[in-house]
Write a structure and sequence with these properties.
This protein is mainly alpha-helical. The chain has one domain. It is 62% helix and 0% strand. The protein is built from four helices and no strands.
Length: 102
C-alpha cells in the first residue's frame, strides 16, 4: 500500500520557493539547538555552526525578493507551502515542549 499523496504545493515564484527552503533549513537547525529538548552539546554546537551559513542564505533569499520588487509576503500561500513541507512539525521543535504534569 502506498502512503497518502501529499497535497500539491501552491504556486510560488522561484524566489518564494527559495525563501521557504532556506527558512525551513534555519528552523531545522534551531530545533537541533533548542536547549529545552533532549540532545547533546556537540549536536547543538554543529547546528549552531551551520546556522550562520543558512541564515546568510535566508537573508539573501529575502534580499533577492526585495530587489525583484516582491515586497509583499503572501502569508496564506506561504503558510500552505510550509504545511505541505511538514513545517508544523519542524517549527514545533523550536518552541518549548509542554510542561509535564506530576
Amino acid at each position: 500500500m502506498l502512503p497518502p499523496e501529499l497535497p500539491p504545493l501552491p504556486a510560488l515564484t522561484r524566489a518564494e520557493a527559495e525563501l521557504i527552503d532556506r527558512y525551513l533549513e534555519v528552523v531545522d537547525l534551531l530545533g537541533r539547538i533548542n536547549p529545552a529538548l533532549h540532545g547533546d552539546t556537540y549536536r547543538g554546537l554543529r547546528a549552531a555552526q551551520a546556522l550562520v551559513g543558512k541564515a546568510t542564505a535566508l537573508r539573501d533569499a529575502l534580499a533577492l525578493m526585495h530587489q525583484r520588487g516582491e515586497t509583499h509576503l503572501h502569508a496564506g500561500t506561504l503558510a500552505r507551502a510550509l504545511r505541505v513541507l511538514d513545517g508544523e512539525r519542524r517549527t514545533a521543535r523550536v518552541t518549548l515542549p509542554p510542561e509535564s504534569v506530576g
